[in-house]
Write a structure and sequence with these properties.
This protein is mostly helical. It has a single domain (about 5-105), classed as 434 Repressor (Amino-terminal Domain) (Orthogonal Bundle), CATH 1.10.260. It contains 7 helices and no strands.
Length: about 110
């Protein structure tokens, strides 16, 4: 399994577990996060990697820290999302979009 697939699979499982632990349906979580139900289903099945902005919407809708969704136990130490989020915290939307493009280019 490639690193990207493993990361996507871990994220998929984390989102699914967090949703179920809160007793939410995919429809309810998708509505809270402002995304399509089919898109959420694809995220939970590990078929797509959500953008950073969608991941943040999911964390807000689930009430969990981003680090919880990005933890990668099968790959060793968790990612360092807190430091990344601190860097992006007060940045304008254009900077966030640029950061997303860079991340997609690195991990696509």
């Amino acid at each position: 399994m490639t690193r990207e697939r493993a990361l996507r699979a871990n994220l998929a499982e984390a989102v699914r577990q967090a949703r179920r632990a809160r007793g939410l349906t995919q429809r309810a979580l998708a509505a809270r996060a402002g995304i399509g139900e089919k898109y959420l289903s694809r995220i939970e099945r590990g078929l797509v990697t959500p953008s950073l902005l969608v991941a943040l919407e999911l964390t807000a809708a689930l009430g969990v820290p981003l680090a919880e969704l990005l933890a990668t136990p099968s790959l060793g130490a968790p990612l360092a999302p807190v430091s990344i989020l601190k860097l992006l915290a007060d940045r304008p939307t254009s900077d966030l979009e640029r950061a997303e493009r860079v991340l997609r280019a690195l991990f696509a």
